[in-house]
Amino acid sequence: MLLLGGKKKWNNWAGNQTSESFLYTPESEDQLIELIQLARDKKRNIRVVGSGHSFSSLVPTNDFIVDMKKFSGCIEFSKEESWAHFKSGTVLKDVNSFLFQNGQSLRNLGDVDVQTISGALATGTHGTGRRLPIISEDILEVTYVNGLGEIKTITENEPEKLQAFKVHLGLLGIITSIKVRTISSYKLHCVTKKMSLTSILKDFDRLTLKNRNFEFFWFPYTDYAQVKLMNETERKPDNKKISNWFNSIFLENLLYGFLIKLCMLFKSKIIFFSNLCIKFVSYSEKVDWSHQIYATPRWNKFCETEFSIPLEHIKPCLKKVREIIFKHKQLSIIPVEVRTVRQDNILLSPAFNRDSAYIAIHTPKGAEYRECYQEIERYMYEIGGRPHWGKISSLSLERCKKIYPQFEYFRRIRKDNDPEGIFLNKWTKELFI
Ligand SMILES: Cc1cc2nc3c(=O)[nH]c(=O)nc-3n(C[C@H](O)[C@H](O)[C@H](O)COP(=O)(O)OP(=O)(O)OC[C@H]3O[C@@H](n4cnc5c(N)ncnc54)[C@H](O)[C@@H]3O)c2cc1C
Predict the structure, then answer these.
(1) Which protein residue's CA is at the shortest distance from atom 49 of ligand 1?
(2) What is the mean pLDDT of residues 151-155?
């Protein structure tokens, strides 16, 4: 018998998504099946939440929100065959430390590690690297409970279906476990420095091809960016605890948080504050195991929109983004993040069938962003942009059909798995029905 209690307020990390929902934390597959039956009987919807780090309207529902945090930990792994099988609610930080203790790691990661493995993979979470695909590309197998309450497993023996489960938005069922490909643990040498946007863009091909992971954070009211160049190394991890704390906590969170607050108070001084921020960017190096290098603490909350665009549009795109930010006097004190991703074959991946640059625009929590983001979004579609599923966009069904060549195939797979539509909330209903 399910004990659901009353409705409670749910909100995401950024606070831009909220709902009054029945929050449920199941402990077993049987409880999931029981909940699905209840939802079917009462014609209610179920959305699953990971760590609530998506900015888009994927999770909110006035019906059931299922938190899978009790489905946590590694089920089985093989170092020899390079795979590991995790329960779906395992947080990436725990995935990383388990793998590391066993000499393994994920091939690539984004810039935080607080998402759940299922949540990160559901929206096509990516890191950076011209030769590295989105993280979901390494999914080997998914086990889930579908909308009829049946437990199913999709493996590499059904390669086309598996491409739907690699970016699934929580629409195909409640994922209970995921098997991922791993690689041997590796260390990264990370160099951080200041470069002008002009010189980055002049040398963009070489920088992105020569470095395993290359990205930059550009302050759009200046011509400068902080670049990060990361490459594998055999060097020993350095033990720069104090300087790491100074850079990643003091400078990038505490002092920077203070500057963001000042900038919110004195909005007209955005150019001054942007130039001040860039003064704090200096040359630094560190060597550590990969998961320690990728993940950075993010204490200052923000809202974000992000688009994958065909790589060749990068220069005109950044010029246009700057124009739009200036026009709207957008409070872009948090830099524009630019990364690259290798193409894939995943039905709903923003990097489907083309090498991509990802451009992310951030706005401090509480600052207005709608009109600016809408204009950026319109422009991005003109150049073939596809929004990150976990970030702010105003995607429509018609747009999805245009930008995702395999959209109809995904819709069919969704309908087969959830014929009554119990895993749809308001937004996903608009997009998929
Ligand atoms: C500070 C910050 C930094 C970020 N950095 C990056 C980055 O570097 N790169 C990048 O690409 N993105 C990044 N993101 C976006 C983030 O990675 C994605 O939005 C991701 O999906 C969030 O994972 P989550 O565990 O919080 O899932 P949620 O946001 O809670 O859910 C995401 C989706 O997964 C579904 N879901 C979760 N668990 C299950 C399950 N068990 N079964 C079925 N469906 C499920 C949900 O229904 C929902 O549709 C960042 C976000 C923030 C706030």
Answers:
(1) 169
(2) 98
Residues 341 and 313 in one domain: yes
Structural domain of 362: 187-387
Q: What distance in angstroms lies between residue 49's CA and the mean position of ligand 1's atoms? A: 9
Place of tokens 């098997």: 179
Please state the atom number of ligand 1 nearest to the C-alpha of residue 423.
47
pLDDT in tens, 261-292: 999 999 999 999 999 999 999 999 999 999 99
What pLDDT does 248 receive?
87
Average pLDDT score over residue span 87-96 = 98
Contact (Cβ atoms closer than 8 angstroms) between residue 164 and residue 429:
no
Q: Which atom of ligand 1 is nearest to the CA of 169?
A: 49
Report the separation in Å between the CA atom of 367 and the middle of ligand 1, taken as the mean of its atom positions.
22
CATH number for the domain spanning 202: value is 3.40.462.10
CB 90 within 8 A of CB 180: no
- DSSP assignment of 231-293, as one string? EEE-SPPP--HHHHHIIIIIIIIIIHHHHHHHHHHSGGGHHHHHHHHHHT---EEEEEEHHHH
> Taking the mean position of all CA atoms in its chain, how far away is CA 41?
34
Within-domain flag for 417: no
The one-letter amino acid code at 339 reads R
| pLDDT score recorded for residue 1 | 62
